[in-house]
Write a structure and sequence with these properties.
By secondary structure, this protein is mostly helical. It has one domain. Helix content is 75%, strand content 0%. The protein contains 3 helices and no strands. The longest helix is centred in the middle third of the chain and has 36 residues.
Length: 85
Amino acid sequence: MDDVTLPPEFERFAAEAVSAGRYRDLSDVGAAGVTLLQRQEQARAELLASVLAAEAEAERDGCLTGDDMLARVRARLAEKYGAAV
């Protein structure tokens, strides 16, 4: 990887993290940052896949509005308990 230039506040933060013993050197700090970015990107990809799957399911099976769902719940409760809910 090429050398990376950081803004001064990031350089200070990284140097302090090394001085405090949390990281062996600045390369470890950079690697930790990239690892966190990888995790964030993976979580983003998983969320997007979940949303796309939900959209596909809704297109395939249809979907209910909140009002539709509430009406179904009320109807089932009325069937079970025999009273208007």
